User: Which sequence fits this backbone?
């Protein structure tokens, strides 16, 4: 039997080492110039792409256009944990007028963004109507995973300025609220642009029923989980153990059960976080649970961003100049303008409204939605959609990541 070389290189082990180097460098390098890590997400993507291009023999990850399931599952889990964490970070829900900017961003800015991106998709990128609707739905929600620098602080630490509160609550809820428009794209792809045959069913089932059910399941789940963690058995409650595993299991239970009865699980886990945070609000378990879930979120995000970077050279083979036009229009014009329109007449100052309008990072949620859609319907423009969305994620993380620190410091000076 031939003995293997003592220093034989296993491509899998090389890949693990490369991931470790990429994540460490992405987290460490920004510290050389700043005490923040705003540039870590784009650096993970860029370093992942560089590793795929420069290091021979690295294992090839499955193409998300051909094998979306793995990408869908990992991105789904990452978003679930991030949405729960976003809900957990909100110390106070009142006064209720604090929610006015959030409701405006959800009810006005997001539909405007979807409409504008869909029109660009048809008129500039040459997509089908179904593909354009899906593009708008995938790119409309802001990302709870990559926007931590503009969100509120951990539980019991405050830092809930109007800007941070609005961006956190918007990111926590708009992932689930984008789902009706994803379904709209799927319906148009399957049945054509004939609203008379499907509009009422879409409104009643995909908009009203599923949103209401997701909200109710999150509230019930939060109350039930709080009861288990803080109330029973008296004198030996689970919250005193400091373990977040049971709470994370409750998040997965809430999400899975909501999806089983056709509700929106993303809405459910965000509401679960908001509801659980009201239970024994001063208990230190909330901070421990937040830190536990945040660690899982950061680990999953790092792996997903490095993986996305490694397949970007493949996804970018279909890039055209029209993709750059759509991406720049979304990031620099559509999102800021729709946000500004939505926030007109609200309490935040002009400078606060500007920051809220501009800093809507695109990221992990977009990956999930496109994988979900691709696994249900075969779209004519799927390659173009992947190229465009990968470009938007890269540009958004770069532009927002490198400027968010300056913007938040500038906001404090007002």
Assistant:
């Amino acid at each position: 039997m031939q003995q293997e070389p003592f220093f034989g290189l296993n491509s899998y082990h090389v890949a693990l080492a490369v991931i470790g180097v990429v994540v460490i460098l992405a987290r460490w390098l920004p510290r050389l110039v700043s005490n923040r890590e705003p540039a870590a997400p784009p650096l993970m993507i860029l370093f992942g792409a560089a590793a795929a291009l420069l290091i021979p023999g690295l294992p090839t990850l499955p193409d998300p256009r051909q094998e979306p399931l793995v990408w869908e599952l990992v991105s789904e889990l990452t978003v679930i944990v991030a949405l729960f964490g976003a809900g957990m970070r909100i110390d106070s829900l009142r006064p209720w007028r604090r929610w006015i900017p959030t409701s405006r961003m959800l009810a006005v800015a997001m539909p405007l963004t979807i409409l504008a991106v869909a029109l660009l998709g048809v008129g500039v990128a040459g997509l089908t109507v179904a593909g354009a609707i899906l593009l708008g739905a995938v790119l409309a929600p802001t990302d709870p995973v990559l926007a931590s620098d503009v969100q509120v602080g951990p539980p019991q630490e405050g830092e809930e300025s109007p800007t941070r509160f609005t961006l956190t609550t918007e990111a926590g809820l708009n992932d689930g609220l984008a789902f009706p428009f994803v379904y709209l794209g799927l319906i148009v792809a399957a049945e054509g642009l004939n609203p008379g045959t499907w509009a009422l069913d879409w409104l009643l089932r995909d908009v009203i029923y599923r949103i209401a059910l997701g909200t109710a399941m999150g509230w019930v789940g939060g109350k039930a989980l709080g009861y288990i963690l803080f109330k029973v058995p008296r004198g030996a409650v689970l919250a005193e153990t400091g373990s977040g595993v049971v709470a994370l299991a409750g998040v997965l239970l809430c999400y899975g059960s909501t999806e089983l009865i056709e509700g929106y699980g993303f809405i459910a886990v965000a509401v679960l976080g908001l509801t659980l945070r009201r239970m024994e609000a001063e208990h230190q378990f909330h901070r421990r649970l937040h830190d536990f879930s945040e660690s899982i979120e950061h680990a999953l995000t790092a792996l997903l961003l490095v993986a996305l970077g490694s397949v970007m050279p493949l996804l970018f083979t279909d890039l055209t100049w029209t993709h750059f036009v759509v991406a720049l229009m979304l990031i620099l014009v559509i999102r800021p303008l729709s946000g500004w329109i939505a926030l007109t007449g609200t309490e935040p100052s002009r400078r606060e409204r500007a920051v809220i309008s501009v800093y809507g990072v695109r990221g992990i949620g977009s990956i999930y939605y496109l994988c979900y859609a691709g696994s249900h319907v075969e779209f004519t423009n799927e390659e173009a959609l992947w190229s465009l969305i990968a470009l938007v994620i890269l540009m958004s993380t770069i532009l927002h990541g490198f400027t968010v620190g300056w913007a938040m410091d500038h906001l404090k000076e007002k």
DSSP finds 15 helices and no strands in the chain. The mean pLDDT is 86.
